[in-house]
Each structure stands twice: as structure tokens, then as C-alpha cells.
Amino acid sequence: MRARRSGFTLMELLLVLMIIVMVTVLSYPSLEAMLSGVKLQAAADFVVTKFADARAHAIEDQQIYRFAIQPGTGQFRYAPDLPELWGGDSSNGGVPTDPSAPPPTVVEDALPGGITFPSGGVSSQVVASTPDNGSWVTVLLFLPSGACSNDWDVTFKPTAGGAPIRISMRGLTGTVNVKMLTSGED
After folding, report:
1. Rounded CA gap, 54 and 143, in Å?
2. Is the pLDDT of residue 77 over 90?
3. Contact by Cβ (8 Å): 55, 142
4. How far is Cα of residue 135 from the mean position of the Cα atoms in its chain?
5. Which residue did the predictor score with more confidence, 58 or 30?
6. Domains with residue ranges and CATH for the chain
7. Which residues of 121-153 are buried (b: 16+ CB within 10 A; e: fewer)?
8. pLDDT of 151 over the 70 cut
9. Backbone φ/ψ region at 150: left (φ over 0), alpha (ψ -120 to 50), beta
10. Please, what sign has the CA dihedral across residues 38, 186, 167, 71?
11. Residue 112 near residue 42, CB atoms below 8 Å
């Protein structure tokens, strides 16, 4: 009698591999939607954190901080609302006038996960009284009192499935609300 060898045939291995590929292909859309939602939540949390940072700097430094975005991109910037930091006329070449003062806090960053600020609908919510250089669009001024110049809402929409997220900044109180929207709600 012949001894039987344990193992798998090539046909059995190919069949199992084909099943794994099919399950992966069928589950990819739901995984993509789940990852899209996670990216949106991470971007919303990041913006809320940066709002809190800019507000804290405005209170601590007792000066107005400007929060600006580049619509259609994920780029944002916040810094004191000084002409030398925002491309305004300055006779000293962009250096704050008080040499004994600590350097101003200027933060330029981008949203994580390839999330972008919407390019449409931003103009109605822009702080019109402050000129910007280049493509920066001022959306909020954080005041030394802890309040903001105005209310501002931004909605991040998923690229593949999932629900959009709206971040709402309330001007009078400086509080931020984050709400997951239903897919029909914008």
C-alpha cells in the first residue's frame, strides 16, 4: 500500500485564491465608503482643533487672529491680523514693529486625507472687510474676547459613499458644532 502525502493540489490553491479575490472585489465599495467617512471625521476633528488653537492664541495674545482658506484645496492658514503677515502695506518688510515681542504665531497647514474646502458657496460667508493676498480667503476672525467675527459653516462631502459632515462655528460664543448629515441634507 502506498503512503498518502498530505498537501494541496495546484487546482485547490487556485480555487481558494480566486474566492479570496472575489470577496475582496465585492467588499471594496463598502470599505471605500467606510474609509471615506473616517477621512471626513479626521478632517473635521482637525479643523475643530485648529479653530481652538487660533481662538486660544487670540485670547492669549490679546489680538485678532485671521483664519483663511484656499477654496478647492485643503490649505488653510491662521495668523495675527496684521498687514505685514497678510501681504498688506508694511514699511518694515513684513517684520512686526515691536522687536521685543515674541514672533507671531503663523500656522499654514492642510487637511488630512486629501479632503478639500468647498470652492462654491464660500464667498457668501467671507469676512469682506479684510483684504487677502493671493488665493487666501478669510472666513473667520478670532477676537481677543473669545468670540468670532461671524458665524461660518463648512460642509465636507465624501468622495465615495458615506454621509457629509458639517462644521458650524458660532460667532458670538466661539463654539464649534460638528454634525454628520444624511446624504440628502446639505
Report:
1. 10
2. yes
3. yes
4. 17
5. 58
6. 50-180 (3.55.40.10)
7. ebeeebbeebebeeebbbbbbbbeeebbbbebe
8. yes
9. beta
10. positive
11. yes
